[in-house]
Amino acid sequence: MKSILRGLRYGRLIRRVYTRRFAKYGSHPAGIFWSNEHRQLSRFKILLDQILFVQPKGTVSVADVGCGYGAMLYFIRENRAYDRLVYSGYDINPTLIKACKNDARLPSKRFHVGDRPLTAIDFSVMSGTYNMAVTSDVKHWEEYFLGCLRSCWRYSRKGMVFNLLCAEQSHISDGGLYYANVHRIRAYCKANFGITRVVREPRLPSDVAFMITRV
Ligand SMILES: C[S@@+](CC[C@H](N)C(=O)[O-])C[C@H]1O[C@@H](n2cnc3c(N)ncnc32)[C@H](O)[C@@H]1O
């Protein structure tokens, strides 16, 4: 019961933090706490390339959970390599989903408020979704976001790929950023979901991607 109430409170706080930030910067990487566009897009590439690697042929449906203002869909459309992906976007924040729906260049029907896919898709993908913690209690934050992963997993027919900031010891920084211990998260995903590969990119040394596939 306590963890349910905590999850609801975190949801409210997450919405408030991102709504304020978005009001200040709008549909721009800074509007959702990314330091620059290059790093935002590099993360998309790492995650989406993993999906294409494990599913080398045919169309693949992806749910972008924590889609922000829809930047991943722009990225997919601008890169022919991702033609095979059928996109849907979800975000816990109605303000951001409204921004996606009101963006004439984006297909409004593809975006929904939520913290998990509404229907079964091939892969859930989350970029930066769980980076901004709204508590200083790392144990509670991990309990919360692992619960979110479990919800997404239930709707992911083939797998799930997400990134986290990482550090030797899991902690929440003074600025509220969550840093994960890679071994712990990998062990959790392996025990609760499926085969879990850790993907590192030397140009993003604090970032780690986790690619989980069903057997
Ligand atoms: C750092 S932004 C990244 C946005 C987008 N993935 C990108 O890279 O452009 C994190 C986004 O995740 C959303 N978010 C945070 N927690 C979430 C959750 N549990 N479920 C769904 N969305 C969430 C926030 O509202 C925010 O839009």
Secondary structure topology:
Layout: H1 2-25, H2 37-54, E1 60-65, H3 71-78, E2 85-91, H4 94-102, E3 111-113, E4 121-126, H5 138-154, E5 156-166, E6 171-172, E7 178-180, H6 182-192, E8 195-200, E9 207-213
Parallel strand pairs: 1-2, 1-4, 2-3, 4-5, 5-7
Antiparallel strand pairs: 5-9, 6-7, 8-9
Describe this structure as you would to a colleague:
The protein has 215 residues and is of the alpha/beta class. It has one domain: 3-Layer(aba) Sandwich (Rossmann fold). Helices cover 40% and strands 24% of the residues. The chain has six helices and nine strands. It has helices spanning 2-25, 37-54, 71-78, 94-102, 138-154, 182-192, and strands at 60-65, 85-91, 111-113, 121-126, 156-166, 171-172, 178-180, 195-200, 207-213. Strands 1, 2, 3, 4, 5, 6, 7, 8 and 9 form a nine-stranded mixed β-sheet that branches. Helix 4 (94-102) links the parallel strand 2 (85-91) and strand 3. The longest helix has 24 residues, at 2-25. The radius of gyration is 16 Å and the shape is globular. The chain starts with a helix and ends with a strand. The model has no long low-confidence stretch (mean pLDDT 97). It binds S-adenosylmethionine. S-adenosylmethionine is lined by residues 14, 18, 32-33, 40, 65-68, 71, 90-93, 96, 115, 127-129, 131, 148.
Give the key terms.
215 residues; alpha/beta; Rossmann fold; nine-stranded mixed sheet; 6 helices; 9 strands; globular; binds S-adenosylmethionine
